Amino acid sequence: MINSDDFLPAAYADGSIANIPATIATLLDTPFEGLPPLRPPAWQPLNGDVQRVVLVLVDALGWDLLQGARSRAGWLWQQALVQERLTSVFPSTTVAALSSVWTGVAPARHGLVGLRLLFPEYAVLGQMLSMGPNFISAPDALVRAGTEPADFLEVAGFAEQLAWAGVPTYAYKSCSFVDSALSQMHGRGVRESVGIVTAADMFLRVRQRLEETAGERLYISAYWHAVDTLTHMYGPDHPAVAAEVSAVLQLLQEELVSALSPAARANTVLFLTADHGQVNTPEEQEIYLDDHPALQEMLLMRPAGEPRTPYLYARQGRQAGVVAYIQEHLGQAMVAMAAEEALAAGLLGPEPHAPQTALRVGDVVATMREGHVLLTPEERAHQRAQQ
Fold this sequence. Notes:
14 strands, alpha/beta, globular, 17 helices
């Protein structure tokens, strides 16, 4: 099992982002089936006659980035009733983490366990943001082939459960993906999905909704992606990332928090969270699969999952050999274990697991140390072409 001294496990019991939906349902006094709420100190100071909840999720706004904004956004720490450090899920990447926020269960239960997943019926690795083959840009090709986004996740959506209790959900996200296949997976039960252009546009329109519905029960999900986009482009320590964080927090204050009327503010709780953080992955910590032909020979196909959490499919009878090779030759960069061991240990969440999860994590689950990544020959060639 992974040594906790090297890695921080996801706190599925009461301290992860996957526990946020149950917390919101408890505040709204609605039934919920999924993981339990967050530990009491993380939300009970907000308890009372809560009728409306707004969840602002800023992609990749991890704890370190948020703490770095203290001097520029002091209002947030002055006005926040609760500040709590949560874990993400495993793997701590957008598709798995957002799916947990939209279902209230861990990745092993909802089944969307990584960016690249095996679709055996089409004999292809699918890229879950584009819903197309991983080796070519063909958005929604898997949908056209017959994959139904609304049926992909193995559990009911959070918005569906709220709707069953009479609480409508309104979702705000970029126009560029408000109608994407992934948004359709997440948006089951949403009363209205609103495409927005900028963060200012998002906060303004959320405020308008709260004003128009003053006194009514509702849940609002507002998602902003640009911090994640910038960190992928420049790295988390780049000034552009810090500037974007400051701008988003300032807009949150000016266009939403401070501008709300007393009637719209009444019985309303605002949560600000991220889905995951980011770490630097310097070139010297890149591990290239084609530099390890003995490992490649034991693999049936390219890794699924993510460069920082690869799922490896071994040739028949080679699972133990893959684990042994990584331990001997790549132990400084990654930790590997048999997939069934990772699932049994609860790495991707407690049981019950989705029926497809065991297939989707392959034979060996690996996770990278520090800033290491495992890159396929295609990813290596792509990086060289951009240099």
